């Protein structure tokens, strides 16, 4: 049995721990493992390296991915499917394990429908993938964002300022919600619960009246105002273009809010965009362990012939679910959860 693996989409803490899990468990089963370079691009271009236990010995604690990654969509490339089939034949690959988010796993699912034996491992800091309770990378990102908010308290307090901190998560607010609540942000804004700028500013002013002359606003990059508002009725984009999977480049909502809040409240306001800091560096213990379990599970799935499926965390168990269940459906923050946590603590 010869297994090809790849990491696709944005890099994410824990990818290397999955790779180690796959290689160590795979070798135990007597399988050969090769790692394609730079996601689907490496499969299209037939670029790969054999992976040994020595190659993965020290990688689990490192962030990023030793294989490299890309946002290449093979179905948008000329003769994409044909080239993938050709590579798999030339490299004698029996099974392909794709480690990625919705986009990467969507390709794995389509390839499975084309007769290629694929298995998925769910990855994204955004935690927005359906059919798994958590994705690895999320816990690390939440902790980085929470620590950033912790640190912003001192400047906000000392200078009597409003600090708006922009947090990743594309169309979902999982990181902003958990980091915001954990870090003691006074206002948390997420895409799932469009906000009212009047209410936001009134909360800031009310805090000031009570002698609390500073406020921290944690805002998810995809947050926008409620319908009917004249302000921020759509997500703030960095550029009016999309990647090969049709994703827009979000970014800048904190700056827009900085200006608006300063104008409306008269308070000194600053914005901070955490950006890729949230995806960088070493994975948390939770992510290292979860990623390792996903890697080991992927090999078990190869052994059991569970193709077209994805490793998934359900409660405390790692199970397998059809890729079809995981792709194309975003796992959003339930508004009830937001209301019971962030909204309860609003302004406090
Ligand atoms: O999906 C992970 C993520 O970090 C999102 O939170 C963010 O919107 C996007 O990727 C950024 O993508 P890129 O690294 O391509 O700018």
- On the 0-100 scale, what is the average pLDDT? 97
Proportion of beta-strand residues: 15-25%
Low-confidence sequence ranges: none
Secondary structure: helix percent: 25-40%
The CATH architecture designation of the largest domain is: 3-Layer(aba) Sandwich
CATH topology of the largest domain: Rossmann fold
Distinct small-molecule ligands in the complex: 6-O-phosphono-beta-D-fructofuranose
Shape designation? elongated
Order of helices and strands: EHEHEHHEHEHEHEHEEEHEHEEHH
Name the strands of the widest sheet in spatial order: 3-2-1-4-5-12-13
* Largest beta-sheet characterization: 7 strands, mixed
Family: Belongs to the phosphofructokinase type A (PFKA) family. Mixed-substrate PFK group III subfamily.
Subunit structure: Homodimer or homotetramer.
Organism: Aerophobetes bacterium
Cofactor: Mg(2+)
What is shown here, in short?
With 348 residues, the chain is of the alpha/beta class. It has helices at residues 15-28, 40-44, 53-56, 80-90, 102-113, 138-159, 174-183, 197-209, 253-265, 285-303, 323-326, 335-343, and strands at 2-7, 32-36, 48-50, 95-100, 118-122, 162-167, 187-189, 215-220, 237-242, 248-250, 269-273, 309-314, 317-322. It is built from twelve helices and 13 strands.
């Amino acid at each position: 049995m010869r297994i090809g693996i790849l990491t696709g989409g944005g890099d994410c803490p824990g990818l290397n721990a999955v790779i180690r899990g796959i290689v160590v468990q795979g070798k135990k089963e007597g399988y050969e493992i090769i790692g394609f370079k730079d996601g689907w691009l490496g499969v299209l271009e037939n670029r790969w390296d054999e992976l040994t236990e020595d190659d993965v010995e020290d990688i689990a604690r490192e962030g990023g991915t030793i294989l490299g990654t890309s946002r290449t969509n093979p179905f948008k490339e000329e003769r994409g499917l044909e080239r993938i089939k050709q590579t798999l034949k030339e490299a004698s690959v029996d099974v392909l394990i794709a480690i990625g988010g919705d986009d990467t796993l969507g390709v794995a699912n389509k390839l499975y429908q084309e007769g290629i034996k694929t298995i998925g491992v769910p990855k994204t800091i955004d935690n927005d993938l359906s059919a798994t309770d958590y994705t690895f990378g999320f816990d690390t990102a939440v902790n980085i964002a929470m620590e950033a908010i912790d640190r912003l308290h001192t400047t906000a307090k000392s200078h009597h300022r409003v600090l708006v901190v922009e947090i990743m998560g594309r169309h979902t607010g999982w990181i902003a919600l958990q980091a915001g609540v954990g870090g003691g942000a006074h206002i948390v804004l997420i895409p799932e619960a469009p906000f009212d700028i009047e209410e936001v500013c009134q909360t800031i002013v009310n805090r000031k009246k009570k002698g609390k002359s500073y406020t921290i606003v944690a805002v998810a990059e995809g947050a926008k105002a409620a319908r009917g508002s004249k302000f921020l009725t759509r997500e703030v984009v960095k550029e009016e273009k999309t990647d090969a999977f049709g994703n827009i480049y979000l970014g800048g909502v904190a700056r827009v809010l900085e200006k608006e809040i300063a104008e409306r409240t008269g308070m000194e306001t600053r914005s901070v965009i955490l950006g890729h800091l949230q995806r960088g560096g070493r994975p948390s213990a939770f992510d290292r362990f979860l990623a390792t379990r996903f890697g080991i599970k992927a090999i078990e799935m190869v052994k059991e012939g569970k193709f077209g499926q994805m490793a998934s965390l359900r409660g405390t168990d790692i199970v397998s679910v059809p890729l079809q269940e995981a792709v194309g459906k975003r796992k959003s923050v339930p508004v009830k959860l937001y209301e019971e946590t962030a909204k309860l603590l609003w302004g406090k």
